[in-house]
Amino acid sequence: MPLVHVDSKGKIFTNVVTKRPVRALLRMPTQTLVGSIYLRPDNRLLDELNDSEAQFLAVTDVYVYDETVTTLLYTTRFLAVNKDHILAIVPFEDLEAGPGIGVWLSSLRAALRATEASQGGEQP
Question: Which residue among 17, 45, 61, 122 has its CA within the 20 to 30 Å range from the CA of 91?
């Protein structure tokens, strides 16, 4: 629970919560998202999903692909994702190429790098 301080003029101050960004791939019913999720210092990705106080997961710098991950539908700086609609989630750095995914994963990484480079963003 954040500590709240109200000064003499009525301005409200709360503690700043430091979070670390984790690039992740989120599989949704009809789309696949790649974006940054912010975790509290001692939390894992699973801990953020299990946080019962928040129904939505904030995702930034999001690339939204169709369900086959062959077409980039759009990008957005912010997307609030209903956690009930997430089918699977994995930190992008943990994705490894294997039979059937190697070409797709390489293509996805290359597409993300190209898109982010053209927009001046970070590379996954």
Answer: 17
